[in-house]
Amino acid sequence: MSRRVSTLAAARPKSACVPKNFDLLPFPSLRVRLHPVPLMTILDAYIRRDEGQENVIGTLLGSCSDGNVIDVTDCFVDRHSLTGEGLLQIIKDHHESMFELKQQANGGNGGVREVVVGWFCTGSEMTELTCAVHGWFKQFSSVSKFFPQPPLTEPIHLMVDAIMESGSFAVKVYTQVQMTMAREACFQFHELPLELYASPSDRIGLRLLQKVRMANRSHPPKPEELMEPAADGVLLDEMGDGLSAELEQLQEKLEICASYVRSVLNGETEPDPEVGRFLSSALSGATEPELESFEQLCQNTLQDSLMAAHLARLAKLQFALTEEGIEGRLLVDSSDAQHLLKPLKHLRVVVALD
């Protein structure tokens, strides 16, 4: 099957010098909020990049909110190659397939529709390929799926220093601005204000990752431990640790609020109108979900978490075998396979066993 590629004319200029960095200017009035998922995806893609590939590029997905705030909530990697003439080839079929897959996955959860807001690249400085990739996203909208609309009239460019070449883990975002100081129109990249934003659910996952990281530092798992299948109860306990910690913090905050209200009612504390309005607004904004919809939501989330946990354990097993130098395909006994796939029996998962 032939695959379509998009070639970007990015021949190295002879006399042009690519600027290394840019100052933060007061225009345009856009702010970017970067969520943990795309940042983790970019770092994971850099670790898993093909041999001989220096950097990875990909597409940023998100939405516009609060007028001039761009929320970057997801991303995917674009497969590309660099020819001997210095031309960058992006596989369009892969780009379109990944975009459609993300749209289907996002459309099923009833959330905000994600659109293409820009692209990302790993590295510490811009190169001659930066303008070529940026121009591809801007000029070939039918393929890149970036459609300019206010306030986002230009795709944003996220640069992640994955190996800390600049001495720190730098994450910066830019937009292209047209300059009219010369006779011919020219463009420059200007840095935008960037905020690393984590929702309550994201913070639960980050705490769990940090806990596992600290545990692995103190007691590194052995290869034979990774090969042993864990019981369902252990998996549920591991996934519930982060939620339990979040619920405990919520309970502590509610106890503080309840103690303050009792103190005001008993005349021990002078009432604060601002605090009272805040509590009233918080209580009136809290909606009680229906029992059936809440149970269905919990059931779907539990099944997804079990699938992710089991697939992660299988991936750890594969890594352990690779480190031990074991080559060839892994043959799974039917009884072991049934045990590993037991929590997935309600999901539509196709598994090929030899």
The helix tally amounts to 10
Strand content: 15-25%
Order of helices and strands: EEHEEEEHEHHEEEEHHHHHH
Q: Point out poorly predicted stretches.
A: 9-26, 229-236, 327-334, 343-354
Rg of Cα set: 25 Å
Described by the principal axes of the CA atoms, the overall outline is: globular
CATH homology superfamily name of the largest domain:
Cytidine Deaminase, domain 2
Number of domains: 2
Count of beta strands:
11
Pfam families: JAB, MitMem_reg
InterPro entries: eIF3f, EIF3F/CSN6-like_C, JAMM/MPN+_dom
GO molecular function: metallopeptidase activity; translation initiation factor activity; translation initiation factor binding
GO cellular component, one term: eukaryotic translation initiation factor 3 complex, eIF3m
Descriptive account of the structure:
By secondary structure, the protein is an alpha/beta fold. It folds into two domains: 5-10 and 20-196, Cytidine Deaminase, domain 2, CATH 3.40.140.10; 200-344, no CATH class. The chain has helices spanning 36-47, 92-107, 128-139, 141-144, 200-218, 223-227, 232-265, 273-285, 291-323, 334-340; strands at 5-8, 31-34, 57-65, 69-77, 80-82, 88-91, 115-122, 156-160, 171-179, 186-191, 194-196. The chain has an eight-stranded mixed beta sheet with strand order 10-9-8-7-3-4-2-11. A three-stranded antiparallel beta sheet has the order 1-6-5. The chain is globular.
